[in-house]
Amino acid sequence: MSSGRFITGRKRSLVILLAGLTSSAFGQATDAPLVAPTAVTSWHTGTKLRKQLESPVKMHWQGTSLRTALETLAATQRVAIFLDRRTDPNRPIALDIDQPSLQAALYQIADTCQLGVGRIGAVVYLGPPATALKLAALMDEQHRRVASLPAAQRDRWRRRARVQWPSLAEPQRLMADLEETAGIKLVNETRLPHDLWPAVDLPELDLVERCQLIVAGFGLTPQVSKDGQRMRWVPIPDQLSWEQRYDVETRASAAVQEWQASAPGTTLQLQGQNERGRRLLKVHASFEQHDQLQRRLAALVSSRPLPQPDAERRRYSLKVKEQPAMNVIESLATGMQLRVEVPPGLAERLRGRVSLQVTNAKFEQILDEVLTPLELRYRLNGDVLVIEDGQSRPAPSVPKVR
Asked: Is pLDDT above 90 for 382?
């Protein structure tokens, strides 16, 4: 069975990336389909990603699986999220999130699940803290090594490609595909443990980042040879300290200095304002101390009022096949910054699966398409979307969606 390759190619529907669903772990591997407007076909990267991570977020989940919660968050924020293979994606979570930034919301989710938050390129990585919190340092070390290589080898490791692989992909095979397509030599004597992963679609990553993405869930990190022609994976070290740069708001200066007073052994350098009124902060600290600082900075992002979309003007193109109705409702409600309220007696009905395909449809039209066959209706109460029993009165007519 072919496990697929890392390829560049057409844009696909957004998916949450839940790696490592083996029969010995959390059940047979399956795809994790995403319910989201099909108009959303690309991930945020670069400056857009930074701005999105600084944007305020409101979410409400009650008994929702971690998989579904992250699917919804990834879709509405257009931020790729990869869940470590050692984490159960089916664990239920109950959270009320009202955070000044998406980054702070990610920390809240991670704390609930005893996870850490890291980054591999434009991908947010949720996994065991001993792995996730060290990713920035590990990537920095290998990128520095790549920068010192001869031009031909340097270009090979810096070449970026969109990352896609099919369902039931095997990590060892994915690494072998990289070896073949990138022209590098893997020199490890031991193979990666057998695992089966769901299909993924990620933003572009360079070669170092693609290697790290695959092996991180095994507690490993890639190590590029001095000539750039070979790569091996080695265990992630227990302790790490490194220098990292932060682009912070000027008003964060006092909080940074307060943090340093509680973080012995750290050094920092705060430079002057740039044209955007922000300051460059250089910090040398351990991975735990960097995590503490990042959490403080995430909580200091300016609180801006959440935009209220114009329901009459906002339209969706949506294709759903055999998905739980509640998944569709939550995805739509999140896009409108609404919280969903479901009476306990109606929750079972919303587990019913629906299929629909609409183009340029209003929010209300899609709700009717989903709820009417289940004999349910809705009403808006401020920023709350309330689901009600539709059996007590004639079901509303279903508008024809064109």
From this structure: no
